[in-house]
Amino acid sequence: MVEPTLADFLALVHGRPGHFLLESGYHGGLWLDLDGLFGRPQKVAPFVARLSDQLGRHAVDLVCGPLLGGALLAQSVATALGTEFCFTQPGPPADGVGLYQARYRLPAAFRSRVRGRRVAIVDDVMSAGSSLRATCAEIRSSGALPVAVGALLVLGEVGTRYFVDEQRLPVEAVIRDALELWPPSECPLCKQGAPLENLTAPA
Q1: C-beta of residue 175 within 8 angstroms of C-beta of residue 4
Q2: Low-confidence ranges of the chain (pLDDT < 70)
Q3: First to last CA, the chain
Q4: Within a domain: residue 182?
Q5: Other residues' Cβ atoms within 10 Å of the Cβ of residue 197
Q6: What is the tally of structural domains in the chain?
Q7: CA trace torsion 95, 106, 55, 2 (10° rounding)
Q8: 3-state secondary structure of 88
């Protein structure tokens, strides 16, 4: 099988430079519109197959991903591995300010099914890893054991450092590429006066 490349992935999504507020609270200079990624399943299949191979080494019982793209990926990976699948959905944010205020919750139907299971947590793209770390916390609180984190594309080091250094979880990726993220107080685009877009807010 031909190895999928970054160019192959970027051909499936719409990306543009700018000044963006991410779900994590970080600011970034790149936005990837991932809504249509799984609309061409034959094109994304080589990425799913590669990630499934990588996650298969971790003796996974169940694959979980945050809505929307992570859930679609989780279902595809679970099918490839012959495991069960579940998803998390956005819940009320934490009562506070700063980074990582997003919360994701398992639907009630999944809570008893994940208990005691070895879970791979996946998303289509990970940069800061906001939805993945919220999903990981929810999985742990439900009595499951996260054993690996996976993404089709990992951008930068922020998310990877959290999972590898703090959670002691391996991060599997089909492709990795550089991306710089900044806390709002350190954002050079803010200092330049560039307009900030919040594309994560409800329309």
Answers
A1: yes
A2: 1-2, 201-203
A3: 40
A4: yes
A5: 13
A6: 1
A7: -90
A8: strand
Cβ–Cβ under 8 Å, residues 70 and 132: yes
Say how far apart CA 43 and CA 73 lie, in whole Å: 13
Q: What is the CATH number of the domain that holds 39?
A: 3.40.50.2020
Distance CA 141, CA 68 (A): 21
| Beta carbons of 109 and 77 less than 8 angstroms apart | no
Cβ count near 131 (within 10 Å): 24
Which one-letter amino acid corresponds to residue 57?
R
pLDDT tens, position by position, 165-198 = 999 999 999 999 999 999 999 999 999 999 999 9
Tell me the three state secondary structure of residue 35: coil
What residue numbers bound the domain in which 59 lies? 6-191
